[in-house]
Amino acid sequence: MKANSLKNSTKDFIVEENGNLFYVVKSDKKKHKSSLTPHFSSFVQRNLKTSDEVRHSKSREVSRLRVFTFLVINEGLNPVICQAEMSTDGITWGSFGESESTVFPGNMQVIVPQYFLRFARLKFKNKKQGFNSAVTIWFQGQS
To answer: Which of 80, 92, 120, 136 is the 20 to 30 A CA-CA neighbour of 72?
Structure first.
């Protein structure tokens, strides 16, 4: 190794500014390395009516998230069944063995899919035929 290249490499260093890491090659140039501050996203769908037919929350692309969670709040008078679904393309969906959760009136249920595919959503319906309810579904993720 040349002495000159060794000399230059000892001037390289990493600095932190506003939650971001920068790799500094020369004192006047910075290259972005990574973010120290995670990005948080939160979406809510309120007053979704249930029925005997399966309905779905909005689908979310989760490919850039490290972790994500759904929260279902049953704000109606009757129990509801919920289950996570995933998709590779946002068109073809499956539950792939995800557990169904029963959410009773006034209760909440956290649902975290055990598998990863590019898109995720929840499906929900009445637990008992003819007994409709209403749910609020929160989606929160962190990258």
So the answer is: 92
Structure tokens at 50: 């249930």
Q: 67-74 and 134-142 as β-strands: parallel, antiparallel, unpaired?
A: antiparallel
Q: What pLDDT, in 10s, does the model give residues 29-83?
A: 545 555 567 899 999 999 999 999 999 999 999 999 999 999 999 999 999 999 9
Query: Could you tell me the pTM of the whole model?
Result: 0.74
**Distance of alpha carbon 102 from the chain centroid:** 21
- Tens of pLDDT, residue by residue over 132-143, are 999 999 999 999
Of 118, 72, 77, 73, give the one whose Cα is nearest residue 94.
Answer: 118
Q: Report how far residue 33's alpha carbon sits from residue 127's, in angstroms, rounded to the nearest whole number.
A: 49
**If we measure between CA atoms, which residue out of 113, 117, 129, 122 comes closest to residue 90?**
117
